[in-house]
């Protein structure tokens, strides 16, 4: 049966590098949204617990409930949260209307838009939002932003950071005035944190870096030795001896160029979240065998007869081939694929 | 909350068209593998039961067990099946080794490779396979092939069909000789069936066509009026009034060309199986608003302020944009997205 292997040593290695950079493990929060970027929500939550990580961020309430037992807090980045969810499931607030929908007593983190023009309240709504949170009886545990320019050259990253400093100052003052505990502040992504020397935030939400990747411009963040955590392995279904010229798969788009060869099919296809390689794409297995397009929904053909093949050990190559980023390659993997922690 | 809407009337309409073509509903089998091509395995199984469909084909044992109560037989196309699975879970056999792994008494369908050079036993292995099935005490309920050239011009489709006729004759003779019941025979895909006037097979495995698509060369199969079953809807998270020139999303790759506009974010991203549109792609919602790249993992931005937007009502457009086929666009949708049958 096909499986995704999760390399726990690579993961711990990445966490250690990131903790060293930000100064302490306590400052490291993990982003486990979207089934932990395809790595398996529960599997990664357990590894994080083993590593002593206290704070996680996930997609929504459903993901938060599944891993709440393993963290001090799990923040649902999208959607609302119902009263009956565990108390350590926090909710990120994106708009004034949303604040009014959250049941009294829930811990919340206020998202502020510092220039990405995407989610969160606008800076000019800050005071109204803080008042609404208090009026609604919510517990303001955090104030967050997201640096949408962390991967890019240019000044936008720094102007976003300065705006967040202004937000922090105003919230701190508001908390003092009203005798409220100071919430935690966090605005940096993986690359945002790694390009920053002096991090003022109380914690850093590390997403892609914990899984072993950075997608920043090379002048922005230099290589720090992260290791990819996930690899994709497929098992052999059948092997055939085929003559030169034999055509394989849908539309016979692959033609065997060599003299008689063994060709095998393996149990991974695009229905598992792998890409549908067609005749415009060239890709080898990690061991160097040719993957023969077209990939089917549930299987693919490879020249050779190994019992198992590694179809991917670094998402960067597929990302380049499909004009995208490793995030998309990783999150595509079907949750029904078995995850095996090694 | 974002959702996939399953148009039951479109689905019933497609089933009816296909039943008319093959002559009777009894000849229609449904391919519900890979979460019913992303449509939702359980939701589609229930609609099939309502329509009176008796035979289904799925990816593996896990899928088969989930929907076994709704069909006379459910065939797992890949992998093995354990003794404790319900008796109406049948298994497709791809190799001689696999035959020896299946527990005695299980109903099986033998897959024969008639020229796709992908899965199934070779024709020259047919007699050995039939003997092994009998020796192993398995119940041969079906013999199948797959027409890998159904979508293409050229003679390969017909030569595959002729080879399957030969296989059928040999198996029928073997069954007569050994006093075994005649198994069912099926080799055609959606386009293979629709290009055939006189179908000899006992049933036809309809996959993509039941969901409203055909991907065949237009000279091979003409338009028959199938209707797409699935559409993707997203809910508004926030709306902002942005000035001309405002930059939106990661790297600020979208710049607002118009005078001050409302721009909203919606709760679908590539983490849900939608595509990560980047600055090289142009796509509108079904209502005609611009989707602003880059799409994020959990959200995307659209010019406008509707409460909900339809991001896709026909997978063909996304398929063209990403050099693929509707199958891949559909099966990518996360099983965690809510399916709503309308």
Automatic annotation (TrEMBL), chains A, B:
- InterPro entries in UniProt: Ala_racemase, Ala_racemase/Decarboxylase_C, Ala_racemase_C, Ala_racemase_N, Ala_racemase_pyridoxalP-BS, PLP-binding_barrel
What EC number(s) would the UniProt record show?
Answer: 5.1.1.1
UniProt cross-references to SMART domains, sorted A to Z: Ala_racemase_C
Enzyme class, UniProt record, top EC level: isomerase
Q: Which cofactor does it need?
A: pyridoxal 5'-phosphate
Entry's Gene Ontology cellular component terms: cytosol
> What processes does the entry annotate via GO biological process terms?
D-alanine biosynthetic process
Q: Spell out the Pfam families in the cross-references.
A: Ala_racemase_C, Ala_racemase_N
Where in the sequence is N6-(pyridoxal phosphate)lysine found?
33
Q: Which residues form the Alanine racemase C-terminal domain?
A: 229-342
Is Isomerase among this UniProt entry's keywords?
yes
Q: PROSITE patterns, alphabetically?
A: ALANINE_RACEMASE
UniProt xrefs under PANTHER family: ALANINE RACEMASE (PTHR30511), ALANINE RACEMASE, CATABOLIC-RELATED (PTHR30511:SF0)
Listed name of the protein:
ALANINE RACEMASE
Organism, by scientific name, is: Wolinella succinogenes (strain ATCC 29543 / DSM 1740 / CCUG 13145 / JCM 31913 / LMG 7466 / NCTC 11488 / FDC 602W)
């Amino acid at each position: 049966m096909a499986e995704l292997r999760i390399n726990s040593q690579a993961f711990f290695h990445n966490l250690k590098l990131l903790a060293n950079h930000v100064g302490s493990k306590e400052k490291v929060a993990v982003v486990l949204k979207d089934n932990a970027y395809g790595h398996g929500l529960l599997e990664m939550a357990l590894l994080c617990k083993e590593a002593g990580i206290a704070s996680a961020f996930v997609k929504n309430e459903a993901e938060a409930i599944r891993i709440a037992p393993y963290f001090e807090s799990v923040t649902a980045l999208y959607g609302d949260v119902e009263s009956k969810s565990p108390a350590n499931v926090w909710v990120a607030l994106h708009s004034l209307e949303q604040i009014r929908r959250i049941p009294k007593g829930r811990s919340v983190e206020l998202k502020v838009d510092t220039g990405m023009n995407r989610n969160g309240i606008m800076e000019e709504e800050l005071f109204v939002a803080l008042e609404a949170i208090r009026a609604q009886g919510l517990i303001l545990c955090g104030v967050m932003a997201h640096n949408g320019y962390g991967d890019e050259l240019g000044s936008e990253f720094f102007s976003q950071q300065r705006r967040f400093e202004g937000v922090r100052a105003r919230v701190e003052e508001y908390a003092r005035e009203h005798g409220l505990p100071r919430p935690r502040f966090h605005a940096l992504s993986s690359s945002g944190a790694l390009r920053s020397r002096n991090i003022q935030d109380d914690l850093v939400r590390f997403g892609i870096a914990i899984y072993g990747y950075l997608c920043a411009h090379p002048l922005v963040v230099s290589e720090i030795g992260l290791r990819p955590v996930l690899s994709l392995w497929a098992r052999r279904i059948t092997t055939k001896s085929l003559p030169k010229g034999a055509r394989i798969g849908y539309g016979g788009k692959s033609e065997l160029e060599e003299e008689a060869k063994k060709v095998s099919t393996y149990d991974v296809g695009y229905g598992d979240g792998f890409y549908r390689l067609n005749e415009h794409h060239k890709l080898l297995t990690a061991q160097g065998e040719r993957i023969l397009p077209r990939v089917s929904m549930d299987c693919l053909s490879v020249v050779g007869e190994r019992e198992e093949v590694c179809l991917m050990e670094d998402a960067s190559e597929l990302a380049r081939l499909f004009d995208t980023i490793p995030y998309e390659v990783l999150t595509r993997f079907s949750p029904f694929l078995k995850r095996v922690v090694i």
